[in-house]
Design the sequence.
């Protein structure tokens, strides 16, 4: 095999595929990158749960394939000058020669025959979303995924494709985040509801952040689904992942249809006030109180060990006076995921779920269960 490519392109490609490598004592080849030069130059990695394939721009002078340690190769390439790099292997050899200007090295490799096969999905019944919308939506829900492995179905993000919309939702049973974005669905009668593992979502966000191509194709993400796999395609990169089997809870049932108090206030001021009061919350409980009346909201916390704090904010309060106590960590997560100057808080009482959402955006909501005093 002999291929030639630019250091800049190779460095970016390695940063994209490198996140799917895995340290595995029983299968050490999972720590390697498969370099394959046939019709295209492909870099491939897998940890047996997800697989990433990236097509590298470059010239193939001789076809072939080999695997090489991802960490060693990635670190070395990042230090090379931004010039052309030659990657050469001998037939049936297990060494990779890397040449770039006055840098010449040989790195131990391993036969590609030992590398696990990456599953394939038929590219039928396509779903298409805007890249930036998708990236933003994923970041607005992924933090709410449960890290409790006893409920496997909550350890991922729910994807619901319906009526030219993709609805993303995540919950850990204490709070829930939902975001809707536009989606072109090839088969209009098709409705899909699947759970994608949180690790896949995290790696997908990295790929969306790493991919800097500015072509028209790179502004869209194509999604394909099989019985137990999902494939995401972004220009020259493909990520395939298993799907979590199980029934996601019908979270729509817990979204309050009515409220007794609707409060509109500055998101930035509320963030600052919650952070200030959080310093005085009880250790392990993380409780911060919100007391709403007329044209103000009082944010307060008190601890026998530290002291107490209260911050009064101007607000537009529609409906009844109300008091709730919330875990400030959950509250900050939600406020940080919401954009815009104003945030809307809808409250029933101290025991019912409360809803946060942007003032002028119906595509997003965040629900938190209050702490019971």
Sequence:
């Amino acid at each position: 095999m002999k291929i030639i490519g630019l250091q800049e392109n190779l460095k970016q490609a390695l940063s994209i595929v490198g996140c799917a490598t895995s340290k595995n004592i029983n299968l050490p080849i999972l720590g390697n990158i498969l370099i394959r030069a046939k019709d295209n130059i492909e870099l491939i990695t897998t940890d047996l749960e997800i697989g990433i394939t990236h097509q590298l721009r470059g010239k193939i002078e001789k076809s072939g394939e080999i695997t090489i340690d991802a960490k060693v190769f990635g670190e070395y390439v990042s230090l090379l000058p931004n010039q052309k790099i030659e990657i050469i292997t001998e037939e049936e050899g297990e060494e990779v020669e890397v040449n770039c200007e006055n840098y010449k090295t040989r790195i131990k490799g391993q036969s590609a025959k030992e590398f696990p096969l990456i599953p394939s999905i038929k590219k039928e019944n396509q779903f298409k979303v805007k890249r930036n919308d998708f990236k933003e939506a994923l970041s607005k829900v992924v933090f709410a995924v449960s890290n409790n492995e006893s409920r496997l179905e909550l350890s991922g993000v729910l994807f619901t494709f319906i009526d030219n919309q993709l609805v993303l939702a995540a919950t850990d049973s204490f709070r829930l985040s939902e975001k809707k974005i536009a989606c072109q669905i090839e088969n209009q009668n098709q409705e899909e509801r699947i759970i994608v593992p949180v690790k896949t979502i995290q790696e997908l966000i990295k790929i969306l952040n790493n991919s800097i191509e500015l072509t028209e194709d790179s502004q869209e993400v194509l999604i394909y689904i099989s019985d137990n796999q999902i494939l995401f395609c972004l220009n020259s990169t493909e990520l395939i992942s298993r799907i979590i089997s199980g029934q996601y809870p019908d979270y729509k049932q817990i979204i309050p249809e009515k409220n007794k108090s609707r409060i509109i206030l500055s998101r930035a001021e509320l963030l600052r006030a919650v952070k200030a009061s959080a310093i005085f919350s009880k250790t392990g409980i993380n409780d911060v109180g919100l007391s709403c009346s007329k044209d103000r909201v009082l944010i307060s916390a008190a601890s026998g060990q530290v002291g107490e704090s209260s911050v009064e904010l101007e607000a537009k309060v529609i409906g009844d006076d109300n008091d709730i106590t919330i875990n400030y960590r959950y509250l900050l997560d939600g406020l940080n995921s919401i954009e815009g100057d104003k945030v809307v808080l809808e409250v029933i009482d101290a025991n019912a779920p409360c809803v946060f959402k942007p003032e002028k955006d119906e595509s997003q909501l965040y629900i938190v269960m209050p702490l019971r005093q």
The chain has three domains: 2-114, 127-251, 256-368. The domain at 2-114 is CATH 3.10.150.10 (DNA Polymerase III; Chain A, domain 2).
